[in-house]
Fold this sequence. Notes:
Number of strands of chain B: 11
Shape of chain A: globular
Strand content of chain B: over 45%
Radius of gyration of chain A: 14 Å
Oligomer: heterodimer
Structural class of chain B: mainly beta
Strand content of chain A: over 45%
Distance between the termini of chain B: 36 Å
Order of helices and strands of chain A: EEEEEEEEEEE
Number of helices of chain A: 0
Helix content of chain B: under 10%
Number of helices of chain B: 0
Helix content of chain A: under 10%
Distance between the termini of chain A: 41 Å
Amino acid sequence: GEDVEQSLFLSVREGDSSVINCTYTDSSSTYLYWYKQEPGAGLQLLTYIFSNMDMKQDQRLTVLLNKKDKHLSLRIADTQTGDSAIYFCAEYVPGGGNKLTFGTGTQLKVEL
Amino acid sequence: NAGVTQTPKFRVLKTGQSMTLLCAQDMNHEYMYWYRQDPGMGLRLIHYSVGEGTTAKGEVPDGYNVSRLKKQNFLLGLESAAPSQTSVYFCASRKGNQPQHFGDGTRLSIL
């Protein structure tokens, strides 16, 4: 079955790196996504990684995937106050409506 | 190109009232989804559609109905609203195995 877990809160100082972790259970996942939700807004796609990749870098964002441990992480370098938001990981398993299973979301708070 | 548009953005209902939430997408996406978001629970799938004229149940379908009469629209109905349905509702669409695109949400309060 599909189950995606994240810690609920993370607090960092401005300029530090943030690492948001996610674990999933379905080894059939083909894509894993990171979405960002700012207060009062919808979910915005940040980045995603294909399951045959170990790492993907996109400017300040680095995604690491450990398929053996079913562990996904999102590292934000030089975290800014504008990065304060809720971050959701989601896994995609093909078939059955091409649904995504979302984690509970991690609230990132960036302090000055 | 508006993407995914949800109407209304806010609504307050009394217990027992009915209403319909509208989701419209202009990207010619086959798949459409309705989620609800509650604190500490992430997004839970209510119903989804893999194409015009088809719908299917998600994780939490009870108390909701949906229709997809046109490819671009996906309607979510509450026949008899209950306080437990107070939530933020998100619609999303996707094409094939591409990422989902989300609307800005509808904030619904049931008194």
